[in-house]
């Protein structure tokens, strides 16, 4: 015990990467439209290169065929890159629209009174069950059993009642017209 010693190490670091990465993120966000226009220009240029490549591949010259093949491959790559940027942008727009739609549907349900409140509660319970099931699957569990109970205005709603209500509402709202017999 007399030979014990304590060694303390003080490490001082200066993070220079985070501010630069944050600046890059801000720059990309501020220039979204310019990036989209650049991607569209790359796509158009790629189509032009591919067209020229196809035309040159049809010549009788070996040099023309070689250059045509190179232009065709370059054009295909440029078109793929430009299309990918546009595709990612479209996915982001769809996700944003779906989020806004979900908020609007929740607001409409909230204004429908107790029936709408019950449906919001059921939706919350189903979402909770889905999140629990997905989390269980993500942890590698073989089986994810979820029993959902929700207390709405003093009454307990089980998962079977929730499923029956959802099924009934789906049937009611699907194909409701004068000839379907569903009123």
Structure description:
With 183 residues, the protein is mostly helical. The chain has two domains: 27-101; 112-183, no CATH class. The protein contains five helices and two strands. It has a two-stranded antiparallel sheet. It is flat, with a radius of gyration of 30 Å. The N and C termini lie far apart (87 Å).
Secondary-structure element string: HHHHEEH
Enumerate the strands of the largest sheet in spatial order, edge to edge or round the barrel.
1-2
What structural class do the secondary elements suggest?
mainly alpha
Q: Which geometry do the CA atoms define?
A: flat
Largest sheet: 2 strands, antiparallel
Count of DSSP H/I helices: 5
Q: Low-confidence parts lasting 5 or more residues at pLDDT below 50?
A: none
Number-wise, the strands total: 2
Give the DSSP E fraction (strand runs of 2 or more residues). under 5%
**What is the helical fraction, as a range of percent?**
over 70%
Number of domains: 2
**Average of pLDDT:** 76
Distance between the termini: 87 Å
Supply Rg. 30 Å
Summarize the structure.
The protein is mainly α. 70% of the residues lie in helices and 3% in strands. It has helices spanning 17-30, 32-57, 62-110, 114-138, 159-173, and strands at residues 150-152, 155-157.
Topology:
Blueprint lengths: L16 H14 L1 H26 L4 H49 L3 H25 L11 E3 L2 E3 L1 H15 L10
Antiparallel strand pairs: 1-2
């Amino acid at each position: 015990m007399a030979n014990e010693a304590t060694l303390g190490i003080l490490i001082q670091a200066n993070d220079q990467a985070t501010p630069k990465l944050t600046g890059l993120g801000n720059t990309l966000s501020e220039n979204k439209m310019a990036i989209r226009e650049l991607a569209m220009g790359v796509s158009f240029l790629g189509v032009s290169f591919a067209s020229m490549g196809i035309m040159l591949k049809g010549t009788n010259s070996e040099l023309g065929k070689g250059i045509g093949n190179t232009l065709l491959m370059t054009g295909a790559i440029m078109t793929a890159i430009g299309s990918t940027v546009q595709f990612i942008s479209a996915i982001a727009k769809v996700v944003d629209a779906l989020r806004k739609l979900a908020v609007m549907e929740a607001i409409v349900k909230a204004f429908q009174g107790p029936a709408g409140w019950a449906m919001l509660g059921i939706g919350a319970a189903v979402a909770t069950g889905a999140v629990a099931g997905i989390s269980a699957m993500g942890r590698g569990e073989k089986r994810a059993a979820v029993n959902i109970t929700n207390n709405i205005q003093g009454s307990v709603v089980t998962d079977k009642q929730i499923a029956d209500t959802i099924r009934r509402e789906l049937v009611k709202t699907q194909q409701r017209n004068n000839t379907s017999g569903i009123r």
